[in-house]
């Protein structure tokens, strides 16, 4: 949809109110046009010496009525259109948010938060300005222009009409010459604002890093640069828009001067009466204001046009990941997951980040995925969640290609803890019960018990009603991760994916959480969770995946080893090497020694100490 079609569709939705508003405003302008005519007649009578007291009183009465009617109509019309303008702002922002909700991560990688914010804030404001002030003044100005033109032609002299209105024909030339410049500069201004908003967002988001590096001056310097760019762009914009805004009323003034001089001459030579002369000069004077406003309207139109184009571009983006055409499998997920020969590269790149990945996880089983940084673990999770679309025929859930499921159904059946355990700036209750519009506090509490964060939350003065601040700044790293995990417990989906979500949690707590999440956990009964969960645990830490039914070791996007913990230790490959390194054990140590119970094998001797040493200073209570 082109920019202006978006605008029209919004106005069309509120067409009745807009029509009423325009009619009322036009009426207000029409009333003004009668004033010169009344005064003209008054002047003629005065000149002919037949003006009575009654005539004067009735003239004054008519003028008062015209004035009152004009003011009331203008006020009503403006109020109506301004109220619609506010609704339009809300509608437009809601539509933007809905659109953003459909776009995949790839889109966000190419567009900064600041840029998107500038759409939602400044572009929408400019559009509102057009939909309120623009439409009001256009209605008032055009009605006035037409009415004055009519009065001048019908009740006046054609020569004076040509002299008075002739200069107005230069206005279209101004629009043609200056309009595109104003539009382009307005786009540049909006882009510069977006870029500044991005800097502010990054500085505030990363304030701890900025402070820790003592980099405030560098950051302020960068910010000043952005502000300088905005000022430069604004100055360029203001130069042209002010020129435009001044030249349009100048045309009316030129007409006024012409009418004053030529009209005076015609009056002296008795071609027109003094009443016509008064009326004509007042008509032209009346045009000055609306033309000044029309100048502003044309300015707003150029700016709104630029903003509408930006918004229209965004609205036209086709989501990279969307529901397929045709019949879709709209059935609840059970939890069996198969990946078959999956090879994937990010759009626009030249390198495969995953190569020939295959595995099968039965419903209720746990798959562990480990591998060095950049080996493709998160990419694999993203593909399972369809944050990116995998190639057709490579990822299956319950025997069907995931591309055949509606996205909403697929995501309803999956719960995911991202690597950064993102929290929203709302209460702990709402963060944990995120999957419900009105979270059930008891379920929230039980989920928090399972992830061992209940005690911490209870110690906060406001308990579960505690606001966590932006991205959970008021919580420690470990608390944040546990709250994020509690969110997936609460969701109770058949497939759950934890992407390195236990990294900031000490091993004892990690062990407790994993045990609670296990099917035998007493706490889960309290939550009345459905069935067994298919769980995928991505981690750098082997203790997180040790209990998994199968563990995949990824390296450079390929599975280099697979098996269960004991088998992999026995195989003596990369997993066993990593195990020894992480456990701080020597070759002679026997982490997977036979005869251990599940509990004993969970954290083998030496591992806790080894990890504790490795993680010293990195884990809990970071904030
Ligand atoms: N949006 C993207 N566009 C292009 N390449 C990407 C994108 N995201 C990740 N990559 C690349 O894909 C590879 C795998 O990244 P991925 O995040 O899946 O690794 P990972 O194993 O999860 O790493 P880590 O353990 O550090 O989180 C990396 O080389 C990374 O640079």
Blueprint (SSEs and pairs):
Blueprint lengths: L2 H11 L1 H34 L4 H50 L2 H6 L2 H43 L2 H8 L5 H35 L1 H6 L3 H53 L5 H42 L21 E8 L9 E8 L4 E5 L6 H8 L10 E3 L2 E2 L5 H6 L1 E4 L10 H5 L8 H10 L3 H6 L17 H15 L3 E5 L7 H11 L4 H6 L6 E6 L2 H4 L4 E6 L2 E6 L1 H7 L2 H10 L14 H5 L4 H9 L8
Parallel strand pairs: 3-8, 3-9, 6-7, 7-8
Antiparallel strand pairs: 1-2, 1-4, 4-5, 9-10
The site of adenosine-5'-triphosphate has 13 residues, from helix 11.
What key attributes describe this structure?
623 residues, alpha/beta, ABC transporter transmembrane region fold, Rossmann fold, 2 domains, four-stranded antiparallel β-sheet, binds adenosine-5'-triphosphate
Task: Describe it.
The C terminus is likely disordered. The protein starts with a helix and ends in an 8-residue tail after the last helix. The protein folds into two domains: 313 residues, ABC transporter transmembrane region fold; 279 residues, Rossmann fold, CATH 3.40.50. Helix 1 crosses helix 10, helix 2 packs antiparallel against helix 3 and helix 5 packs antiparallel against helix 10. The chain has 23 helices and ten strands. The protein is an alpha/beta fold and 623 residues long. The strands form two sheets. It has a six-stranded mixed beta sheet, sandwiched between helices. The protein is 63% helix and 9% strand. A hairpin with a 2-residue loop joins strand 9 and strand 10. It binds adenosine-5'-triphosphate. The site of adenosine-5'-triphosphate (ATP) has 13 residues, from helix 11. It is a multi-pass membrane protein. This is ABC transporter related protein. InterPro entries: AAA+_ATPase, ABC1_TM_dom, ABC1_TM_sf, ABC_transporter-like_ATP-bd, ABC_transporter-like_CS, P-loop_NTPase, Type_1_exporter. It is found in: Cell membrane. GO terms for molecular function: ABC-type oligopeptide transporter activity; ATP binding; ATP hydrolysis activity.
């Amino acid at each position: 949809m082109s920019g202006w079609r978006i605008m029209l569709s919004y106005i069309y939705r509120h067409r009745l109110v807009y029509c009423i508003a325009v009619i009322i405003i036009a009426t207000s302008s029409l009333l003004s046009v009668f004033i010169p005519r009344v005064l003209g007649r008054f002047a003629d009578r005065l000149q002919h010496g037949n003006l009575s007291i009654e005539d004067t009183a009735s003239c004054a009465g008519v003028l008062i009525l015209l004035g009152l009617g004009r003011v009331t109509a203008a006020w009503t019309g403006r109020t109506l259109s301004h109220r619609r303008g506010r609704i339009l702002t809300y509608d437009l922002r809601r539509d933007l948010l809905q659109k953003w909700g459909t776009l995949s991560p790839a889109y966000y990688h190419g567009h900064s938060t600041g840029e998107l914010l500038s759409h939602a804030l400044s572009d929408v404001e400019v559009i509102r300005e057009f939909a309120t002030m623009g439409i009001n003044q256009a209605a008032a100005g055009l009605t006035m222009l037409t009415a004055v033109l009519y009065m001048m032609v019908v009740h006046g002299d054609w020569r004076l009409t040509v002299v008075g209105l002739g200069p107005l024909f230069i206005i279209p030339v101004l629009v043609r010459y200056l309009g595109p410049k104003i539009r382009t500069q307005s786009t540049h201004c909006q882009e510069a604002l977006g870029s500044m908003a991005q800097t502010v967002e990054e500085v505030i988001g990363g304030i701890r890093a900025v402070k820790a590096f003592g980099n405030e001056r560098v950051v302020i310097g960068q910010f000043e640069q952005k502000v300088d760019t905005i000022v430069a762009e604004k100055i360029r914009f203001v130069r042209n828009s002010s020129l435009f805004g001044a030249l349009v009323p100048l045309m009316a003034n030129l007409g006024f001067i012409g009418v004053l001089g030529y009209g005076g001459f015609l009056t002296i030579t008795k071609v027109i009466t003094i009443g016509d002369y008064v009326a004509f000069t007042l008509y032209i004077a009346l045009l000055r204001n609306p033309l000044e406003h029309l100048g502003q309207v044309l300015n707003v139109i150029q700016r709104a046009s630029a903003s509408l184009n930006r918004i229209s571009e965004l609205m036209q983006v086709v989501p990279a990941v969307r529901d397929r055409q045709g019949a879709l499998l709209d059935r609840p997920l059970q939890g069996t997951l198969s990946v078959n020969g999956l090879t994937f590269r990010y759009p626009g790149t030249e390198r495969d980040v995953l190569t020939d990945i295959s595995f099968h996880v039965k419903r209720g089983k746990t798959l562990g995925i480990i591998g060095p940084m950049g080996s493709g673990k998160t990419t694999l999770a993203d593909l399972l969640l369809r944050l990116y679309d995998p190639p057709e025929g490579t990822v299956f859930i319950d025997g069907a290609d995931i591309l055949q499921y509606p996205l909403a159904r697929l995501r309803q059946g999956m719960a995911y803890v991202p690597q950064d355990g993102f929290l929203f700036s709302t209460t702990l209750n709402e963060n944990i019960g995120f999957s419900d519009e009105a979270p059930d506090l008891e379920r929230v509490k039980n989920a928090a018990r399972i992830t061992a964060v209940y005690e911490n939350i209870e110690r906060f003065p406001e308990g579960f009603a505690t606001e966590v601040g932006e991205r959970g700044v008021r919580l420690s790293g470990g608390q944040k991760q546990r709250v994020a995990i509690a969110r997936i417990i609460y969701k109770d989906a058949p497939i759950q994916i934890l992407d390195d979500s236990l990294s900031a949690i000490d091993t004892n707590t990690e062990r407790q959480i994993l045990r609670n999440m296990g099917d035998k956990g007493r706490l889960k009964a309290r939550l009345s969770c459905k069935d067994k969960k298919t769980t995928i645990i991505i981690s750098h830490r082997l203790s997180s995946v040790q209990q998994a039914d199968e563990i995949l070791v990824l390296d450079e996007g390929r599975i280099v080893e697979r098996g269960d913990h004991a088998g992999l230790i026995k195989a003596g490959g990369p997993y066993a090497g990593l195990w020894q390194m992480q456990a701080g054990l020597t070759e002679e140590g026997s982490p997977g020694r036979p005869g251990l119970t599940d509990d004993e094998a969970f954290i083998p001797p030496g591992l806790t100490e080894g990890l504790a040493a490795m993680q010293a200073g990195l884990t809990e209570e970071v904030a």
